[in-house]
Amino acid sequence: MRLAGCSFTPYRLPLRQPWVSARGAFGQREGWLVRLETDSGLIGYGDCAPLPEAGTESMASAAAGLADWAGVLPGMAPEATLVRLDAETRRMPAVCCGLETALLDLLAQQAALPLARWLSPFSALSVKVNAALGRLDRQVMARARVAVAEGYAVLKLKVGLAAAHDELAMLRDLAGILPAGVSLRLDANQAWSERQASDFLAALAGLPVESVEDPLACPEVVSLGRLQTAVPFPLAADESMLRLGADALLDQRLVRRIVLKPMVLGGLRPALALAHRAREAGLECVVTTTVDSAAGVYAALHLAAAVANELAHGLATSAWLARDIGDPPQPVAGSLRVRNVPGLGFASAADTGLEK
Predict the structure, then answer these.
(1) Would you say 128 and 301 are in contact if contact means Cβ atoms under 8 Å apart?
(2) pTM to 2 decimals?
(3) Are strands 24-38 and 284-287 parallel, antiparallel or unpaired?
(4) I need a surface site. Which of 100, 219, 251, 316 has the fewest CB within 10 A?
(5) Do strands 257-260 and 284-287 pair parallel, antiparallel, or not at all (unpaired)?
(6) What is the residue-wise DSSP string for 128-163?
């Protein structure tokens, strides 16, 4: 099997409302739909959606990287292309993620396997997901009630955006309406000093907190480990892993959970390799999108299925987009199911005649 052609179609997808965190806000997602075609007529898709604030290259760097690849891809074998990509994952993670996903889509189709099963014979058939509720505001109670009614058991909220006493009061009010078995996943996006984080985490005692992500503005080995030791729930490292490095987190077990974002880590294979290392070290893994297009969500879903744990993953982000480049997987009762079709399972809106 050889690559016969490639295209990188730019897109700009507005959000229904800004995605706000302690690191800033954005109101749209931009990127390219990667489309690779083989000499046998197979078509593979991937999503290249840089988000520099999350740890990827810039849009300009990604555009230049894709242009370079366009000149060398035709005639290459997918397996050889993957080997060349492996050297670029740190420098251009979003470009590598888009190209790698499309290549894996082709290889899984050739093997007549869903991509998750191609990645791991022990992949799950469905994946639990958390509801992404955004920030704590006046409408959060209503959004939480809807999410619970839709079957979500984990509600993710952004914190560190207002005074701590105000956010804690809202969290207590929110916890008061939650049925048994529903928990809160909090993401501070590196909002606090160690003292602020310590005080906030201590004040969560008695609340149904499932985990807290990236509490420290300047995470260090000693301070992050000290915070994890002091609380009964997992602390999770996302942006903190970019600063400290995966080796330090895993070797010293500074936190109990790491966050895997394919767009930031350079694709599904690097993320899955990190998940295997984390499991051996006794750490949990959660897969999340970077508010990606439908093609990116499908890729993250296959990764989460290959990780095959019982945690809720951060994949239910498509509803934040006002439009998309194809139909994303739809959560049912707080879970996403892997389609039993070969490859990624994504269909472009342009190719199906359903342009959105």
Answers:
(1) no
(2) 0.96
(3) unpaired
(4) 251
(5) parallel
(6) EEEEEEEE-STTHHHHHHHHHHTT-SEEEEE-SSS-
Instruction: Write down the pLDDT at residue 239.
Output: 94
Buried (b) or exposed (e) across 108-136, using 16+ Cβ within 10 A?
Answer: bbbeebbbbbbbbeebbeebbbbbbbbbb
Q: Give Dmax over CA atoms of the chain in angstroms.
A: 61
Q: Is the sign of the CA dihedral 123, 125, 130, 131 positive or negative? A: positive
Q: For the segment 241-271, what is each residue's pLDDT rounded down to a tens digit?
A: 999 999 999 999 999 999 999 999 999 999 9
Per the listing, tokens 């951060």 go with: 314
**Per-residue CA distances from 277 to 26, 249, 274, 339 (Å):** 32, 11, 5, 27
Q: Which amino acid is at 341?
A: V
Give CA–CA dist 43/300, Å, rounded.
19
What is the rounded CA–CA span in Å between residue 324 and residue 133? 19
Which regions of the chain are under pLDDT 50? 353-356
Per-residue pLDDT tens digits for 20-41: 998 889 999 999 999 999 999 9
Alpha carbons within 13 angstroms on the beta-carbon side of residue 58 total 3
Paired tokens of 86: 């492996």
- In sequence order, the β-bridge partners of residue 88 are none
Helices 221-230, 194-203: crossing angle, 10 deg rounding: 10
